Amino acid sequence: MSATAPARRLRLGLPRRVFSQVLLMQLAIAAGVAVLATGLFLAPLGDQLDDQAMRRALAIAQTTAEQDRIAEDLRSTPPSPDGPVQREAERVRRTTGAEYVVVLDTRGVRWSHTDPRRIGGHVSTDPGRALAGHEVMEIDEGTLGRSARGKVPLRDDSGEIVGAVSVGIAYDSVRARLIQAIPELLAYAGGALAVGALAAWLISRRVQRQTRDLAFSDIAALLAEREAMLHGIREGVVALDRAGRIRLLNDEAQRLLDIGGEAVGRTPDEALGAGRTADVLAGRVTGTDLLTVRGQRVLVANRMPTGDGGAVATLRDRTELDQLGRELDSTRGLIDALRAQDHEHANHMHTLLGLLELEMYEEAVEFIGEVVGDHRVTAEQVTERIRDPLLAALLVGKATVAAERGVALKVSDGTRLPDRLIDPRGLVTVAGNLVDNALDAAAGTAKARVEIELRTEGRTVVLVVRDTGPGIAPEQRELVFTEGWSTKRAPEHRERGIGLSLVRRFAERQGGSATVGEAPGGGAEFTVVLPEALTDTGQRPALSGTTGRGAGEEESR
């Protein structure tokens, strides 16, 4: 209890709230400015009063010296308290209110003085400059104390200097005038301080509302926590101002969007380019959990308006989840194909067993040859025309799945693909998506058929996938490549409308294109052109490739 009491007393000495601290600081500033302004005003005022006093003393001395009788009396009469010089000097002193009017000869002997006893004595200050013909203004100490002085030479009718006149004005009278001005100055300063205090109170109230009456330490802690949270979470955060410009990007948003800090201050269209991602961030596309593709990443975006007219958008990376969904679809398809093959294999075995029990050995041998030969012929046709092992394995597997779905998967006679692909995994992603789409479209139609053609033109690879499905209307041929566009219901574990968007983005990133048209005889024909997709002759690429997906990727239309 006793240990915490001093700390509490110290905290009471300085308010913690922003309102109180800002008010006190502004009051201190206003008071300091008022005191400084008063001091700056009084300093030159004192100098001005001193100058006025010295000039007044000089003017009295000049007026006195211009009287001809004083110079004549100075020559013709001795210094005396009752002499004409003393009487005239005292008359001038009483008339002007000066502290003293002293007339002296060239030897520095007084002929007049406020104190008659000092008449006939030498002056206490050096009259040399005045006797030399110069006019003097000064503030100095004399026998009558501190005073503002004016000294001028005294000349006779012929212009010869016969003495000097020294006039003094009491310095206390100057100080009194200065002191008299101080209350008025302080009144003005107090009025200015009151206005400043009112303005400080109004400003502090506004600051209090805007800061929710938090302490500066609380605000600093909130800012530190905000920075740590924004840059520590594994979710992208993009803040936009009321003009639609990006004002904040955390580290994860920069990574997901593949942009740097230079995007701050620019609009999403300027920073990202035209597209769905920019539309979502700018608010032109509304909704919750909006899907968008940026590069090879599938993102889920949400946008929330803020009270100042801006907005905050959050981005989550759904790439891995989407890939897992595609692998699940692929695994399910493979399981269905294996189940169907197992059923078909059991039928073949029953047929073979019957032929053997009937001792029809030649027919049994012929039956086995037909069953084994069909699969061998399909595999050999693919591997002869497509030398890349990954793509060949994909198409052999797809042929089995197609057969189980009642669709004939054929490799066109014009297909020739050497084993020189720079990015075989990327082409597997593209081919897998297009074949799955074609199988979905052709399944259930009369004479269902999917044809694949892979040809090379120099180092360019052209992939064409045709199907006998219903085709795509001309007005929808660009929409099929839009993220999130699909005509089929999405499975529970993932979203649709991603595969074809990835196909086009992969092609455009390679400098190529992805288009769709009408196949000969009806159906859809997808064409993907990939420039510079093959290595030079004699060079073999590494199988690592890029981070493309495999055979299970699909897109519906």
UniProtKB/TrEMBL annotation:
Its EC number is 2.7.13.3. GO terms for molecular function: kinase activity. Residues 423-534 form the Histidine kinase domain. Gene3D superfamilies: 1.10.287.130, Histidine kinase-like ATPase, C-terminal domain, PAS domain. It is an enzyme of class 2 (transferase). It is found in: Cell membrane. Residues 67-91, 532-557 are annotated as: Disordered. The chain crosses the membrane at residues 23-46, 185-203. It catalyses: ATP + protein L-histidine = ADP + protein N-phospho-L-histidine. It is a multi-pass membrane protein. This is histidine kinase. The lineage of its organism: Bacteria, Bacillati, Actinomycetota, Actinomycetes, Kitasatosporales.
